[in-house]
Structures are given as structure tokens and as C-alpha cells.
Write a structure and sequence with these properties.
By secondary structure, the protein is mainly α. About 70% of the residues lie in helices and about 0% in strands. The protein has 20 helices and no strands. Helix 1 runs antiparallel to helix 6 and helix 10 packs parallel to helix 14. It starts with a helix and ends in a 5-residue tail after the last helix.
């Protein structure tokens, strides 16, 4: 466990730095050749989609559904493929290539799959049994290392990775998260992902903002999940048609992302970190940013390339908050943007506790915990009205063995730590 968690912390930091390097170089390239992405991005999308389909199909998409599926049958052949060295290496390299092409992907989902793979391989090397608890702990440590948010890693394990959450798994997760978090902090420093946000909300504003932002963000997030599942979900209406024309789909999606990025002055490229941070600090972003980033993230996800939706979802949520901020005093715009991030994120992944903790940890604020909780609970309700299925759990069915289901009974059988 100690060796695995130390490795995960180091890998998370190295991946984060490589991702930043890829985005910086892409930004420098676009500054010199502003219209080049109209050719480069679609070509990269097609190339990455082709490589993913041919050499590492288990690396496609976020990476979180793969860990959910693997944790249900940790000893099976399916899990060996999902968390192999080959799959992990492909996930890392292809995600970085996607960022270099301006794709709207995050590194958190890939970090979760990479972390679970690292935990699995170390346990196999040391001839220690690989159980569901090991995979859950690895995935949680990946979240903690990616965002430098230990509490969010634990919350994510509870809400997304392990529905049947036993005490022994809890101890394993907390140990892995603590060691991984300390390792990443030791290498990268004790930084706050989006910087400290000092804006606060008065009670009268909270009573209005929480339902308004919660409903708006939750519905928008639910629309993303519903659209994604219709296009690429296991029983999606358009899945078969897009699958038959996979490379054409990647080409069209790549061109859409490129066009939005070029004509959107580059704000929608990559994770969306820079405009999100600016809006959190009180800057007025363009009103089209949220809808444009929404389409860019959806197009990137539908293309079938590896890459996560954590950071891009927070960026879209910031755009939602930016749209609603003029309804409230300007001095509180940063706090409204923060609520928008949490609300949209909940609408997409349906994990309110994770949203509250991850937003509070990445913004270094504790004064807005209660407004965040209120907003996220409302957003969870609103998101469920639009899309009943939880996104990651629905997508996990793609990686389950034939005949297996993500039922509560199956989760309870596969969720415990053995021995």
C-alpha cells in the first residue's frame, strides 16, 4: 500500500506537469498560427481515435467508468485489460496528445485509471491479492493527487467508486489518499488548484442564489449527461450509427472543437483552467463561454478519445455561474461562479458531496460550505429530472463482462475488502 500510494502521488504530479506543458505549447503554437487548429485538431482527433480503437480500446473516455467496472470483478480477465500497463501508458500518452490538440479534456479521470492501474500492478508485483478495496483506494488516491484535494478523494470513493462502502475499505482509502496526497504536496507544494477565493454570500443572497444556480446548473449538467449517453451510452440511440463511422465522427467532432476554439479566442481549449480562475476572481467572462465550452466538451467526449470531464465540467459550470452572476451584486460574482461550478458538476456526475468538497478545496474557501451544500442538493434533484442515470455508472456497463450488471447486489458482493 505504501509503495503504491507513493507511486500514485508521483505519477499524478508528473502527469499534471506534462499536461500543463502540452497546453502551454499548444497555446504558443496557436499564438503563432491562429487558424492552424482548423486542420491540426481534426487530424489529431482522427489519429487519437484510430490509435485508441486499434491498440487500447480500454483507454477510451474518462477512465472512471473503467475503475468502477473493474472494482466489481477485481480478479477477472476484464479487469486485467482495463488496468494493464499497456492501457495505462496509452491513457497517459493519448490524453496528453489530446491536450496538445486543444481537446476539451481533463486529466483527473485519466489519473484515476492510471492510479488504479499502478495500484494493481504494484500489488501483483508484490504478490498481494488485488481486491475491490485496492482498486477503490487507487482511484481515490488518483483524485487526491490530481487536484491536491485529499478530502475530495475520500468523498469521491464514497459516492462514485464504492456504493457498498465498508469500514475496511474506508481505512484503505484514507491511507492511500493520505500517502498519495502527502507525496504530491511534497513534490508540487501545498498549492490551491484555482487559488484562494475570498468572495462570500450573505444569507439573503444565498436564499435566492442556491435555488436559482442549483436548478440552472443541475439542469444544464443533466442535459450534458443525457446527450452524452444518447450519443455514446451503452444503449444510446445514436451509438451504433456513430460507431460504424467512428473516424468520421472523430473528424467532425475535432473540427467542431477547433472552430469553437479559433472563433472563441482560445478560451475553450483544454481544461478551461485559465478562464475559470479569472471568473472566480471576479472577472466578467463572455456570456457565450459556458454554452461554447459545453459543446466543445460534448464533442470531445463523443469523439471517443481518452480524456476526463472533471476539469472541463468545472469550467462549463463557471460559465453557467457567469451567466447568472449579473442577477446578483457584482462583489459576489466570484461566489456565484463557484456555486455554478458545483451545481453543473453535480448535474453531470450526480455526486453532491464530492462537488462540495472538491470546489471548496480547489478554491481554498470554507466560508461557502453551507451555500455549496444547499446548491448541490438542489442541483442533484434538478439533474435527476433531466437524466435519471448516473453518468459514470451508466458508462461503466461498457466495460463489464457480458451478462454482468451494476446492480446494488453485485456492488455489495464486489465492494468489500477481503482478508
Amino acid at each position: 500500500m505504501l509503495a503504491s500510494a507513493l507511486l500514485i502521488g508521483a505519477l499524478a504530479v508528473l502527469f499534471a506537469r506534462a499536461a500543463d506543458f502540452a497546453q502551454r505549447n499548444f497555446a504558443a503554437f496557436v499564438a503563432r498560427e491562429p487558424y492552424a487548429p482548423l486542420l491540426l485538431t481534426p487530424v489529431l482527433f482522427v489519429g487519437i481515435a484510430a490509435l485508441t480503437r486499434s491498440f487500447a480500446p480500454a483507454s477510451r473516455g474518462s477512465g472512471i467508468p473503467q475503475v468502477i467496472a473493474a472494482s466489481r470483478a477485481p480478479d477477472g480477465e476484464t479487469t486485467a485489460g482495463l488496468l494493464s500497463i499497456r492501457t495505462a501508458a496509452a491513457k497517459l500518452l493519448l490524453s496528453l496528445a489530446a491536450l496538445f490538440g486543444g481537446a476539451s479534456v481533463g486529466r483527473e479521470g485519466p489519473t484515476v485509471q492510471l492510479a488504479a492501474a499502478a495500484m494493481t500492478q504494484v500489488h501483483k508485483l508484490l504478490r498481494v491479492p488485488v481486491t475491490s478495496g485496492v482498486l477503490i483506494a487507487g482511484g481515490a488516491a488518483g483524485v487526491a493527487g490530481a487536484f491536491n484535494t485529499p478530502l475530495a478523494g475520500i468523498a469521491f470513493a464514497i459516492e462514485e467508486l464504492a456504493v457498498a462502502y465498508e469500514q475496511r475499505i474506508a481505512l484503505l482509502v484514507m491511507a492511500a489518499v493520505m500517502i498519495s496526497g502527502l507525496t504530491s504536496q511534497g513534490i508540487a507544494g501545498n498549492y490551491v488548484y484555482f487559488g484562494h477565493v475570498s468572495a462570500t454570500l450573505s444569507l439573503p443572497v444565498v436564499l435566492i442564489a442556491a435555488p436559482v444556480v442549483g436548478v440552472g446548473g443541475g439542469i444544464c449538467g443533466g442535459l450534458f449527461s443525457r446527450a452524452f449517453l444518447a450519443l455514446r451510452g451503452p444503449v444510446g440511440r445514436w451509438r451504433a450509427a456513430l460507431g460504424r463511422r467512428a473516424l468520421t465522427t472523430a473528424l467532425v467532432c475535432g473540427f467542431a472543437v477547433a472552430a469553437i476554439g479559433v472563433f472563441g479566442r482560445g478560451l475553450t481549449w483544454g481544461t478551461g483552467y485559465v478562464p475559470t480562475k479569472a471568473m472566480l476572481e471576479g472577472a466578467q467572462g463572455p456570456f457565450w463561454f459556458g454554452p461554447a465550452k459545453f459543446i466543445a466538451v460534448l464533442a470531445t467526449s463523443v469523439s471517443g478519445m481518452p480524456g476526463g470531464i472533471f476539469s472541463p465540467s468545472l469550467a462549463v459550470g463557471a460559465g453557467v455561474g457567469n451567466l447568472l452572476a449579473p442577477l446578483f451584486p457584482h462583489a459576489q460574482s466570484g461566489a456565484i461562479v463557484m456555486l455554478g461550478m458545483a451545481a453543473y458538476f453535480v448535474g453531470v456526475v450526480r455526486a453532491p458531496l464530492t462537488a462540495v468538497i472538491i470546489v471548496s478545496e480547489t478554491t481554498g474557501t470554507t466560508s461557502s460550505i453551507l451555500p455549496l451544500f444547499a446548491t448541490c442538493l438542489i442541483a442533484d434533484w434538478a439533474g435527476a429530472l433531466v437524466c435519471r442515470e448516473r453518468l459514470y455508472h451508466a458508462l461503466a456497463r461498457d466495460f463489464m463482462p457480458p451478462g454482468a450488471e451494476l446492480t446494488p447486489a453485485a456492488e455489495a458482493e464486489g465492494g468489500g475488502e477481503k482478508g
